[in-house]
Specification:
The protein is of the alpha/beta class. It has three domains: 199 residues, Rossmann fold (3-Layer(aba) Sandwich), CATH 3.40.50.12780; 187 residues, ANL, N-terminal domain (Rossmann fold); 104 residues, GMP Synthetase, Chain A, domain 3. It contains 17 helices and 26 strands. The chain has a five-stranded mixed beta sheet. The chain is globular.
């Protein structure tokens, strides 16, 4: 099986389309497409965009022939396999709205996943649900409470529908495109309405000069989940909008063998690949000892970072590890975005690498100002942030205080954004929509940050901010301090605060990868000591069994709000561990 080509005969068009069907129609005239690879690097299948379109047309005629109405919602468990493409693009040509949702992650989470599916069924009003054959039982069990679901199961339930000679009714520029559940909305899912117009505006920004500035000969490589905005828009729609080829491995295979992501880039000369910081960290921690002799990352011109807080230390380690294999640290592109803006809000300039700003911790915590640190090398008094670039063309970004006043450079406040990529609202949730969208189109992102020479520096989520005796403490600082002392591994702790009636008390939930009372007591003591030394606050330490784990969002980010909810519900230790 020959690899799909990188170059093709079509003239490059960067998102100059009105809808998803239009851009697939154009890409199908060329020779590029998508390839799916195993954890061992074997190519499992390859679909030129022409074949993706043909299969989508067949699926669309099946859906229309089965009597589904225009605007009906089709829920799809969005694993990285050809069946997802069939269902998603088939729905686009049939006039249905796809609802991509996550697959189960971790061990022993059946009930939690069923509960999540039920909530997503209810929030989306889906009339059909399909996915991997292995998940048919989950879909059937969750569907028992929803008699309006006319069809559910593996992809075979769609494939078995008769293909009827009906006219296609593709979604157009004025239509909604799909419903995206934001990654942090598991308990009370908000379905973001992604319109065709907003998506095209975002793709224009991503692929254009203000974003990745895609050129002929670019090729994408991705492990990102297609149920998350960065995977779906960043590494399906963006390459499609520019007629690129894409090489995929699944998120599960990346977690097991992270070097395969880099091997794909090396073997097929990938130029664009993205990951949250934890993906780069995983590649170093699990892959550095398995680097093949022929690994060559010199083709990688855009190494994007987004989806969580961008960590300069992680990127430094990744660059130091893989520079001998051709990686250029100037390829890093820190960025910032969220599902409510389709995906992207800001990009750092291409080819300039990571820029950081080191500020005084005290001024940041007590005055909400990012004052340059007097001693940048002193981790106790200084805090380093990554600068995440300028807002996309045709969009606006402001930082405001609690009274709504626009703040100047280095003043920390709430980030607001406005422009053509903004969602019209959450699906069938007018109240929730009004909470974040103003009548004149400004979106309250819920994030905190400050501007620096026209670029945004994100400091954290407003809902996660911990306030202790008037000091603002970022939970990431607590977690990273524990990690820096090598007390726990990256991702093994979650910090939050609880109201004791006499003020806020910091709590740190830690995965206890030790056995025996003495070892657990020592772990709790070390965690509390690391927090006290680095952040100068006392904390309660709660030890969580590894079998239970810490909760994460569907995109893999640590969910501090759910960790706190579990703690308050008594799911962890009844009392804090002695510290």
């Amino acid at each position: 099986m020959d690899p799909l080509p990188t170059r093709h005969s079509l003239a490059l068009r960067r998102a100059a389309f009105g809808s998803v069907p239009e851009m697939l129609d154009y890409a199908a005239q060329g020779q590029t497409g998508v390839s799916f690879h195993s954890a061992r690097g074997e190519r499992l299948s390859a679909l030129p965009w022409k074949e993706v379109r043909e299969r989508a047309h067949v699926m669309a005629r099946k859906l229309i022939g089965a009597g589904f109405a225009r605007g009906d919602r089709l829920l799809i468990t969005a694993d990285t396999w050809p069946g997802f493409f069939d269902a998603f693009f088939g729905a686009q040509y049939a006039g249905l709205l796809p609802v991509p949702v996550s697959i189960p992650v971790g061990i022993g989470g059946k009930e939690a996943y069923l509960d999540q599916l039920r909530r997503q069924f209810a929030a989306s009003g889906a009339v059909a649900a399909v996915g991997l054959d292995e998940l048919a039982g989950f879909l059937a069990e969750a569907a028992e409470e929803f008699p309006a679901l006319r069809l559910h199961g593996g992809m075979d339930v769609l494939e078995s529908l008769p293909e009827k000679p009906v006219d296609l009714r593709p979604l157009g520029p004025a239509d909604t495109c799909y419903i995206q559940f934001s990654s942090g909305s598991t308990r009370h899912p908000h379905g973001v309405q992604i319109t065709q117009a907003a998506l095209m505006a975002n793709l224009e920004g991503i692929t254009g000069p203000g974003g990745l500035d895609v050129v002929e000969g670019d090729r994408a490589a991705s492990w990102l989940p297609l149920y998350h905005d960065m995977g779906l828009i960043g590494f399906l729609f963006s390459p499609l909008a520019a007629q690129l080829s894409i090489d995929y491995i699944t998120p599960r295979d990346f977690a097991r063998r992270p070097m395969q992501w880099l091997n794909l880039i090396s073997k097929y000369r990938g130029t664009i690949a993205y990951s949250p910081s934890f993906g780069y960290d995983l590649a170093v921690r699990r892959g550095a000892s398995q680097v093949p002799a022929d690994l060559d990352l010199s083709s990688w011109r855009h190494a994007g970072i987004g989806g969580d807080m961008v960590r300069a230390d992680v990127l430094d380690r990744f660059a130091a590890t893989f520079e001998p294999r051709g990686f250029n640290r100037s390829a890093f592109i820190p960025s910032y975005g969220m599902a409510e803006v389709c995906l992207a809000i800001t990009f750092s300039p291409g080819g300039t690498g990571v820029h950081t700003d080191t500020v005084d911790r005290t001024a940041l915590a007590e005055q909400q100002r990012a004052v340059p640190a007097a001693n940048p090398d002193d981790a106790h008094s200084a805090r380093r942030f990554v600068v995440c670039g300028k807002v996309l063309p045709r969009h606006q970004l402001e930082v405001r205080d609690e009274q709504g006043h626009v703040l100047g450079d280095r003043a920390v406040g709430r980030i607001f954004v406005r422009g053509p990529s903004i969602m019209p609202g959450y699906f069938q949730e007018p109240e929730a929509s009004r909470e974040v969208l103003s009548p004149d189109g400004w979106l309250d992102t819920g994030d905190l940050g400050y501007l620096l020479n026209g670029e945004i520096v994100v400091t954290g989520r407003a809902k996660d901010l911990i306030i202790v005796n008037g000091r603002n403490v970022w939970p990431q600082d607590i977690e990273w301090a524990i990690e820096a002392q090598k007390v726990v591994k990256s991702g093994d702790s979650a910090a939050f605060s609880v109201d004791t009636g006499e003020g806020e008390r910091v709590v740190v939930a830690v995965l206890a990868r030790v056995s025996g009372d003495e070892a657990k007591t020592e772990l709790a003591r070390d965690v509390a000591g690391a927090v006290r030394e680095a952040i100068a606050v006392d904390c309660d330490v709660v030890l969580v069994p590894p079998t239970m784990g810490l909760p994460h969002t569907s995109s893999g980010k640590l969910s501090r709000s759910r960790t706190k909810a579990n703690y308050l519900a008594g799911h962890y230790a009844a009392k804090p561990a002695a510290a």
